[in-house]
Each structure stands twice: as structure tokens, then as C-alpha cells.
Write a structure and sequence with these properties.
By secondary structure, the chain is an alpha+beta fold. It is built from nine helices and 21 strands.
Length: 545
Amino acid sequence: MSAASCLLTEDQFLCSICLDVFTHPVTTPCGHNFCKACITDHWDVNVPANCPNCKKVFSTRPELQVNTFISEMAAQFRLSAQQKASSSSSEQQAAQPGEVPCDVCTGTKVKALKSCLVCLVSYCEAHLEPHLTTSGLKRHQLMDPVENLEARMCTKHDKLLELFCKTDQMCVCMLCTVLEHKNHEYVPLREEYEGKKAELGKTEAEVQQMIQKRRLKIQEIKHSVKLSEEQADREVLEGVLVFSALKESVERSQVELMDTIKEKQRKTQKEAEGFIKELEQEISELKKRSTEVELLSRSEDHLHLLQSFRTLNTAPPTKDWTGVRVSPPSYEGTVVRAVNQLEKKLSNQMKKLLELKRVQQSAVDVTLDPDTANPRLILSDDGKQVKDGDVEKNLPNNPERFNLCAVVLGKQSLSSGRFYYEVQVKGKTDWDLGVVRKSINRKGIISLSPQNGYWTIWLRNQNEYLACDDPSVRLSLESRPEKVGVFVDYEEGLVSFYDVGSAALIYSFTGCCFTEKLYPYFSPCNNNKGTNSAPLIISAVNHTE
């Protein structure tokens, strides 16, 4: 039997209906062989009964018996194929969790390579070979391996779900189309698959668009949070500055109050000490007179006693102390007056801070223009710092450059609106700051005045401050500024300078008439053998939005 089976081709053991190895093979009167279940199902649908191969019609449905010879041959062929497949699969690794195993493998289940929608079986590489080489099996529909292939069968008719009922929106088998879904609109699964796949592509694009929008919204929210954090940091910084200033004012007022009270006490004590000293002097004089009287009273010299009697018999001149009183000083209202003065100071301080905060809203990013810098000046790479380098560099003497004075202008200009920037002047003994009009003279000696297009203030010799107005104004400042704010209101004709640390107004040029572009003006002045070597630094403005 085994030798005989080896002489037969593989196609001779396949049912032409299911295209698989015969199961309970039967032979029709016309001599063709089929699986008993396959030909029975065929005749249930096709009336009268006929042969699927030669189309011979039988007047009466034949009675069929299993062909034992072909059945034995098919069984022998199936066993041989399984042994061959098992031998091949034993060399392969078993399917891992999550992978679809081969349904044919016995023993070790190898990972399936494909699933057959006709056989409803998943095959590994070895067991898939007949579907790739046998002409009948080649017509089977293969797909990537999936589990639960039984779910692809119609539960009512045990037939493959091949069609899609558009009327009921469900997958159906061939029998469903002539029974439960008769006269419904249906299409092949592939056609509906392509349509649904296109819809899924559109849905996927919409979902991706929604994802992108939400990602952008996340970025927007994160940006808002970042801005909020930056604003919170600025508010904290401003709050620290405000309350530090308030604390200093309170402490100064407390010291002033204590000094006032102590001064009153010192005056009272000084007055009392004067009275005591005077009284002690009178006591001393009286004691001296008492001693002299006592000695005279003991004298037996008649002439001496009589001659001295008039002088010693009367008390020495003294002050009438009857109405003299040392009254404790009155402190009534001292604390109240001190608190009122503190309130006024705090109010003034808050006004200063609010004013500075208002002008800081006009802050701009200012950088230095190297084309205008005097050859002695050294500018930082970021254009934020300038100092005198003592040595004159070899630079083109272009019209914009200051050739004699240690001056550099900012790149940014103002021809309308408002403009504010801050400059650190800490550690310097001399500097000039302000704004200038575009057409100023940049060659030779410069005369700083509004008439010549300069609105500036300066520091000389560490503590001599001057506003270069017409005429110049010597400035008396409570504290030495470490950072100066420069504010310009073009339409208002206003240029103001602020001590940023104390929020105090240093000086304002008012009633100015601007007709040209204005540029920031910086002069670190000469190095002075290192005593004025610190740079002018354009600082970031810590303002609140």
C-alpha cells in the first residue's frame, strides 16, 4: 500500500470541491471522487444533482458509499505528509506566546506562517508547502496567521463568510444570500474591505489631525505655564524688592522714633544734671560757710569775732529752688506721628515703584552698534557690554563712528511711542547715559546738551552727578545708583532717568521737541588707569506684564 501510494501524484488525493485531502471519499456514478460532506452539501444546493467535474445530471440523487480503497490511500498519504512535516518542524522553534501556532504540527507547535481561509487551518512553513506547490491548493486564499479561524465560518450554515450584506451591514456566507438575506444588496468581502479600509484611512487622518491639534494645545498650555512661571518669578522678585524697601523704611522709621524718644530723654537728663550740679555747688558753699561760722563761734578773740560777724552772720547768695521742677518729657503722639510719617514714606515709595513699573512696560531689547563705537572701546560679543580698552584699534573711520569721544550708540531707534532700557553702572567712577538724535555730530569734541541733540546725565569722580540740560543741573542723590533706567516718551517729549534699585526718579528732561530718530547713548568714559575699568552693561528688565 505504501509503495503504491508513492506512485500516485498529490493531486489524486485532493477533493476538487474543498481542495483538501479526501475525508470519507465517495465515488459518483460518473466515476469522480469527492469528500462525502462536500458532494452532499453541493447536491443540497444544486437541484437536480449533478457532478461538479463533468456536469453530468442524475435524474435521482445517487446513494453514495465510502470508497474504502481511496479512503485508505488518502489516509496513508495524509500520514506520510504529516510525518514529513513533523520531521521538518522538529528542527524549528516552538511558537512563542502571542504567536499563532501551526494547527497541523504534532508535539512541538511551530509558529504559523500563513492561515488558509478555505481550509480554516494555520500552517507553519513546512505544512504550508502543499498550498504553494499543488495546483488545486494554490487557489486557496492565504493570509497572515490569525487565531480562531472558526469565527470566519457562518454559525448557521457552517460555510465560509465570503460576502458582506450591505443591507444588514454584516458578513454572510453563500447560503445566507439565498435564505436569510435573499434580495439583499451584498458584495464580496474584498470590495467592502477596500471601501472600509479607505474610510479607516480617512478616519486615521482625522484622528492624526485631532492628535496634532491636541499636541499643539499641550504646547500652548505648557507655554502658558512657562509664561505664568516667568511672571510669577518676576512678581516674586518685585515683591522682594518692594517689601525689602518697605522693611528698610520701617526700620529707618523705628530708628528715628527711638532716636527722638532718646533725644527727649537726653535733654531731660541733661537739664536735671545741670540742676543737680548747681545744687551741689550751693551745698558746697553752704558747708564752707557753716564751717567758718562754727570756727568763729569758738573764737575768744573779741575783735576778730566782731569784725567778721557781719560777713559770716548772713547766708551766702543762693538760688530760690522753690519753683524748680524736672518734669518727665511728654511722648504723647510721638508714635502716632512716626507712623504717619512712615505711611507717607511708604506711600511715596509705592508711587515710585508703580511709576517705575509703568515705564518698564515699554522695555525694549537694546544692543550696541559696533559701527558707531570709538576705536578705543571694547564691545562684548553679545553687544551688551562696553568698556574703554586704553588702546585705539585700527577701524574704518565711517561717518557713523565717534572718532574722539569714548561713545557708542545702540542699534535700536525710536521715532514714535515709548522706549525703556536699563544699564548697570556698578563699580564705575565715570559714565554718560541717555539718548541722542540721529543727526548729531560724531567727530571731534562733543558738547552734551539738548540743543545739540543730546539728552544725557553723567557721573564724574564717583559722586558728582550732572544732568546735561540747558543750563546743566547738578544732582543730589540720596544713594549711589547701581543700575540706571532710561525712559523716552517720543510724543510727550520726555526723557527720564531712574535709580532702579530705589525706584527713585533721578532727573527728567521735559517739553522736548523730537523730530528725528532717537538712539540710546553710552559712554563708559576713560579707563583712568584701571580705576574706571568696569563696563557699562545693558541689563534685562525685570518687569511684570
